[in-house]
Amino acid sequence: MSAEIPTREVASPSTPDVAVPPARFRAAEARNRRLGRPLRAVGRIGEVDEQLMQRIGRAMGERDELGARLADAIRLRAGEPGRVTMTQFRQALDEGVASVTDAPPALRDFFAEVEREPEWLDRSLAEEGARAFRRFGQNAQDVLLQLSLVGGYRFGGPTDLLVATGGLTGGQTVRRLAETQKWGASLTDEHELRPPAPGRRAGEAWRLTVHVRLMHAMVNHAYAGRWDTGQWGLPINQADQASTLGLFDGVLLLGVRALGVPVSRRDSRAVMHLWKYVGWLMGVADDFLVDSERERHRINYHVLLAQGPLSEAGPLLSQAVVAAQLERHYPGWPRPLQPLRGAYERERLLSMLTVFLGTTSMHELGLPVRLPWAHAYLAPLNTVRYRLLGRLPGARTGSRGGATDERSACWPATTVVSSRVWERSRHDDAPPPRAGRTRPRPTRAGDVRPDRLRCAAAPTRARRQRRELPARLGGCRPW
């Protein structure tokens, strides 16, 4: 399954006209008000804030300028002044920009910003948020795949970019989700979101987050002049980044509660603070970074009203995700039973999507409606896991109780962009293969072995987990 969303030649977005929102801004407000009724009720949102709406409209024409300057420097020709190589970027990413000899200005400025800690950051609270996030386990995976990822396909703009880049269509679906899952899983380790320091390499979550920021900037650079900014805004803009951040924090918290997972006020505050720092690292505008879950719901509601109607890309992407359940590799299942497990996962996904999105959205996306049998078993399962097993003597817990299963702390990201653009930036100075590498590389999308990426914990920690709490519930489904 593949498609190409046509784009027409437009002016370069290097100096976008932020005073005029794109055509998609509030183009389906009546529909979106209907979709947003549950969020408005839960978030106790009053009247529409027109100033916030106009801010979101302007943000559709704004980008991460710091990342854009670095992307421009990377795309300079060899020998041009100020050019940044990928070797230099990778070294700065691992060891800090101070380790790069004669670092170009764009590289120095970029890493000077991301290596510092913002004044508002409470490192211990962010680490507590990572532990709470890990405690959600399989439930986080379900919410982010179904309510955040597929739910986001109901609006045009970012979905059209995903199709245009080939990010989540055809045989690439499983592979792209598995690649991005590694980033998400790394965020559940409270020690991995630290920048490089003298004598210490950067944590994996920090490196991957900064990597994603550059990748977004590279996509904007690649589509300059051939993306319909008048219709959609910039390819990756501040409004859509704020929307994605809201799907990771506010929508996640609402979704896991709906599945029966207890989330305390302390958990909520910690998770929100974790994602505030992640959003800051990714270049999200400061006025879209919040600590309060209720304020996030308010912003999310207004971002929802600002979205455009469903485009052709939405059904294409949704159906690709559902079909991918039959292509996945399920560790521990013998080859003859792989299709059976895939069929079960497909039906489970459709059942949960029917509840999360509603029958109208299922029909809009071209997905079959199913009975809500999956939710019917998850509520008692989570009651046992979090309210009974999590309180037993000797049970490992997250920040506020609940059995912890680090193997199930994996989930797909809500925004996945094809790495074609990224790979084109690496060809000039790609490093040689690592000496002694013996693990074979995947050869096709269905053999990505996402189980190899499913947990950010170190091998020793994984072995320790296997010895503890053997009767775990809600184990990881690889993505």
* Strand elements, count: 0
Low-confidence spans: pLDDT under 50, at least 5 residues? 1-18, 397-401, 403-479
Average the pLDDT over all residues and give the rounded result: 82
Specify the helix fraction band: 40-55%
Distinct helical segment count:
22
Largest sheet: none
Domain module count: 1
Proportion of strand residues: under 5%
Q: Return the structural class.
A: mainly alpha
Topology:
Elements: H1 29-35, H2 37-42, H3 50-59, H4 65-74, H5 86-95, H6 105-115, H7 123-136, H8 138-152, H9 158-165, H10 172-186, H11 204-222, H12 229-232, H13 238-248, H14 250-258, H15 265-281, H16 293-306, H17 313-324, H18 338-357, H19 359-364, H20 373-388, H21 420-424, H22 459-467
In short:
By secondary structure, the protein is mainly α. It is 52% helix and 0% strand. The relative contact order is 0.17.
Structure description:
With 479 residues, this protein is mainly alpha-helical. The chain has one domain. It contains 22 helices and no strands. The chain has helices at 29-35, 37-42, 50-59, 65-74, 86-95, 105-115, 123-136, 138-152, 158-165, 172-186, 204-222, 229-232, 238-248, 250-258, 265-281, 293-306, 313-324, 338-357, 359-364, 373-388, 420-424, 459-467. α8 (138-152) packs across α14 (250-258), α8 crosses α18 and α10 (172-186) crosses α11. The protein is globular. 50% of the residues are buried. Mean pLDDT is 82; it is low at 1-18, 397-401 and 403-479.
